[in-house]
Design a protein that fits this description.
- Strand 1 (55-58) and strand 2 form a beta hairpin.
- This protein has a two-stranded antiparallel sheet with strand order 1-2.
- The longest helix is centred in the C-terminal third of the chain and has 17 residues, at 109-125.
- The chain has helices spanning 5-20, 28-35, 39-51, 76-84, 109-125, 129-136, and strands at residues 55-58, 64-67.
- The chain is mainly α and 137 residues long.
């Protein structure tokens, strides 16, 4: 499994927003410049984050983006899933897909993948934007 470029850029942009403007509005152009990211792509990613309620979009003069809640209440899992959708290591582990495979009852791979996914999700859920911002400072 590999994070998409969008998830990577989104996480990096969110970390920069949490560091530089935790209680303010920041332009995507400033975030992109500080992180060396393509501005137009980052703007699309931030629109996804806004639709998910992780950031707020502010229009007009002084517009840009701000955190929708404190960085302590935003997890890396929320950021990644806002951009990529639900995380699943295999089809049989997708939400609501427990009958997606006819080998489910006899598959020796399923319990291993399930455990790996649970550990991955736990790590992402247990990592807050505030932690990431502090470690990157």
């Amino acid at each position: 499994m590999k994070l998409t470029r969008g998830a990577d850029y989104g996480a990096r942009g969110m970390i920069r927003l949490a560091q530089d403007a935790p209680d303010r509005v920041m332009l995507v152009s400033d975030i992109a410049a500080r992180e060396g990211l393509p501005e137009s792509y980052l703007a699309k990613i931030f629109q996804e984050l806004a639709r998910s309620g992780i950031v707020r979009s502010h229009r007009g003069a002084g517009g840009g983006f701000s955190l929708a809640r404190s960085a302590e209440h935003i997890t890396l899992r929320q950021i990644v899933e806002a951009i990529e959708g639900p995380i699943a290591l295999n089809t049989c582990l997708e939400q609501g897909q427990t009958d997606a495979c006819e080998r489910m009852g006899v598959c020796s791979l399923y319990p291993v993948l399930k455990q790996a996914q649970e550990q991955l999700l736990s790590t992402l859920e247990g990592t807050t934007l505030a932690q990431l911002a502090a470690e990157s400072a």
